[in-house]
Amino acid sequence: MAVVTELQKIGMGLMGFGMFFLLFGVLLYFDSVLLAFGNVLFLSGLMLIVGVRRTAQFFFQRHKFRGSFFFLGGVALVLCRWPIIGILVESYGFVLLFRSFFPMALSFVLSAVNIPFLNAMFPSSSSMV
């Protein structure tokens, strides 16, 4: 069982608030202050969870340079109060950074059909009768 430190708990809270502010900023027609605050909270929470060195190693890998450039450039554009262009650039960088993770996440979601609780809630209609 993994031990979660106090800094990691704080980091999870910061990431949660960051995602909330990002969603709320998008829902309020790309409010630049909320988006900037969400970006800062999300990135600082990420650094507290995995550590500063491992976060830097993730973003500055050679094969992830383009994704990191677009993601961090989008964050900079949001901080410079160009929220719509910044979020578009940031989301493109996010896709480039995590494109190797998407097949694993999709297979996890598709395997959720085998969970008994979900099978009871959503019965399949593939019966032979």
How is the secondary structure organized here?
Elements (H helix, E strand, L loop, with lengths): L5 H22 L4 H19 L1 H8 L5 H15 L3 H15 L4 H10 L4 H6 L8
Keywords:
about 130 residues, mainly alpha, globular
**Amount of beta strand:** under 5%
Instruction: Estimate the global geometry from the Cα principal axes.
Output: globular
User: Number of domains in the coordinates?
Assistant: 1
Order of H and E elements: HHHHHHH
Classify the secondary structure makeup into a structural class: mainly alpha
Main beta sheet: strand number and arrangement? none
Count the helices. How many?
7
Q: How many strands in all? A: 0
Q: Explain this structure to me?
A:
The structure is a single chain. This protein is mainly α and 129 residues long. It has one domain. The protein is 74% helix and 0% strand. This is Golgi transport 1A. May be involved in fusion of ER-derived transport vesicles with the Golgi complex. Pfam families: Got1. Keywords: Golgi apparatus, Membrane, Transmembrane, Transmembrane helix.
Characterize this entry briefly.
May be involved in fusion of ER-derived transport vesicles with the Golgi complex. By secondary structure, the chain is an all-alpha fold. Helices cover 74% and strands 0% of the residues.
